[in-house]
Every structure is written in C-alpha cells, then in structure tokens.
Amino acid sequence: MEEYIKIGRIGKVHGLKGELKLVLDDQFLMDAIQLEALFLEERGKKAPYFIDYLRGKGTLILKLEEIEDRQAGALLTGKDVYARSEDISISEEEINADDSTYGYLTGYSIVDAELGNLGKIEAIEEYPQQELALLVYKNQEFLIPLNDAFITGEDEKQQLIYMELPEGLLE
After folding, report:
1. Residue 57 CB: number of other CB atoms within 10 A?
2. Which of 38, 68, 96 is the last residue of a domain?
3. With contact defined as beta carbons under 8 Å apart, do 115 and 58 qualify?
4. How do 160-163 and 109-112 pair as beta strands?
5. What's the pLDDT tens digit per position in 124-135?
6. Are the CB atoms for 99 and 54 separated by under 8 Å?
7. CA separation for the pair 114, 116 (Å, rounded)
8. Which pLDDT score is estimated for 97?
9. Predicted structure pTM score
10. Which ranges in 16-142 belong to alpha helices (H)?
C-alpha cells in the first residue's frame, strides 16, 4: 500500500488560468521541485494531480495539468497536498522533528472574540521570538502572533482556534 506525507496545502487561485498558490512546508521545497505529481484527498483516497509547472520565490505558483481555469482551481483551494513517501528525501524522523509549537494549527480557522471567524490559517511562520499565523482576511495577508496571551481556547474536532486579538491588529 502506498504511503503519503503531507507536504503543504493549496492556497488561493492565482490569475485566470487555474494557477494556484502553494503553501509548502519549507523542509519539502527541494523535493517538490522535482515531483511529477502531487496527491490530493478525494473521497477518502489520494488522487494524483500531475504538475504542469511550479514557479516562484517566496510564494509558489502551481499549475496542474487539466486545471485550465479559475473555477476548476477554486475547487482545490484549501486542500492538503501530499507526496508519496518514496519521493521525499528526508527521513520520517526528520519530518517528525518539527520544533514548531503551533505548526499543527495550519488549516484551523481563527475565531476572534469580537470579530468572529476571521478565516483559515494559511501557514505558520517561525521567527526567533515567536510563531505567527499567516491569515488572509478581507483580501489582505496578516501575521497573527500565536501565544497564550491571545489564545483563549481550541476546538480540535472543528479545527477552530479561539483568540482575543489586540484592537487594531487587523487594520
């Protein structure tokens, strides 16, 4: 039976030709450049999507074969991206050695006490002082500090993180 490793997730659609933003875990970048196909979960199974091209620095832009327009791309946004374990060069021990405290929150939605549901966490950015959640809110990217002072609760089942954000943080 084929084994898969989660390497990232599909972000928003980019442009009109079905290109997608790819949020990739940094440790898989070199492997991703060489992949012929990515796998997305469909009906409980991993389905292959063949890569037409992958480009960019910082934000990666992914073009998949047979995804020809914005509407087709939109159906894939927010999905986790997998690669076959045999296509990944780092060991399982290295993958599991993630020293990120909040890395598991990628894909969770932030619910603020005053503003309500702000949207899904696109990625977790690690800085020397703290970890920040990358969030797209009202078509703008924001970095939200992840620390116990702002986090008031968590619902693992519904993938929600409850926070009390400082006033003006999203302006």
Report:
1. 5
2. 96
3. no
4. parallel
5. 887 767 888 888
6. no
7. 6
8. 53
9. 0.57
10. 29-34, 70-74, 92-96
Q: Are residues 44 and 8 in the same domain?
A: yes
Q: Give kind and range of the element (H or E) at residue 124.
A: strand 116-126
Report yes or no on 170 lying in a domain. Answer: no
Q: Please give the biggest Cα pair distance in the chain.
A: 50
Residue 14, beta-bridge partner list: 19
Count of structural domains within the chain: 2
CATH number at 118 reads: 2.30.30.240
| 57 pLDDT above the threshold of 80 | no
Examine the pLDDT at 39 and tell me if it is beyond 80: yes
User: In the prediction, which pLDDT does 95 show?
Assistant: 57
> What are 95-122's pLDDT values in tens digits?
555 556 787 888 999 999 999 999 999 8
